[in-house]
Amino acid sequence: MTDIKIDPKGLVPSPVAAKELRDKAVYGEPIPVADGVDVVVADNIKDYTGPGTNTYLVGTDRLWVIDPGPADTAHIDAVVSAVDGRPVQGILVTHNHLDHSPAAAPLSDRLDAPVYGYGGLPEELHNQSDEDIDPDFVPHKALMGGETVGKGRWRLRVLHTPGHFPNHLCYQLPEAGIVFSGDHVMGWSTTVIVPPLGNLADYMDSLDLLARTGAVRLMPSHGDPVDNALSRIEEVRVHRMMRQTQVEECLHRGMANPADIVDALYDGLTPRLLRAAQGCVEAHIEFYTSRRALAERAHTGAAKTERPDFNTRTPSRYT
Length: 319
Ligand SMILES: [Zn+2]
Prior knowledge:
Structural class: alpha/beta
Order of helices and strands: HEEEEHEHEHEEEEEHEHHH
Strand content: 15-25%
Shape: globular
CATH topology of the largest domain: Metallo-beta-lactamase, Chain A
Bound molecules: zinc ion
Number of domains: 2
Mean pLDDT: 87
Radius of gyration: 19 Å
């Protein structure tokens, strides 16, 4: 595992940091990260995946597999080998971005285990976004925020944490003070929030939800475990609000075009990361606009304009 820290620009790693992440990563074998928790890292390093996707094995006799990862044969083989013939009670998916869910179906077949998750998004919502979405993701069992799965020491509480993506779930292991935090909060970088599927207001609410768990450690889907969970959550909140202030200052100076705001705020940005930076600025503008509309409604008593319901989902196979 690595100790790369957040990029000072706060959005994505520099190419140099990405190379360093790859050089230090260990792929293809289970690495113990807590009592009864191992991680197998997929070799799918990209701009937003840190050293790769973390697939966690949780438990001793009967396992949970959390975030199966990309449809990469070497990674799937490595997870099956790490399970080592132990029964798997479920494969839990945090969300259906392409670096998280495509291995769920092949692992389900090979491990004879059901897939759990919030559910895929309806196709018309995929079409509104250019994000890397796994369109085929359908869990065997759809989960709701607040429910629990399993029993005893390895019981997991489900947290619905939209913001990065509408169907994002975190999984809390209350006995150990651990939350498997997916892409919601990571140690190595801030998460990408790109409208219309990403939403900053939802993201801030989901940060509150995560903080209320009182988690001690976060196990994110990319990068190392985070030991000081609550201070990291606070750090992310402060970072977001700092960026919000910067974007609002640009708006007040008369800059309306997100590309111009990116130019002003992201000095020396690699061109291929421009779209993500622009999406991030759009999320901050949307946050500003929605808060202003809220304040105006409070003043005038006007009716609320509904956002499209991004939390609808495709049904699971059995429920
Ligand atoms: Zn993601």
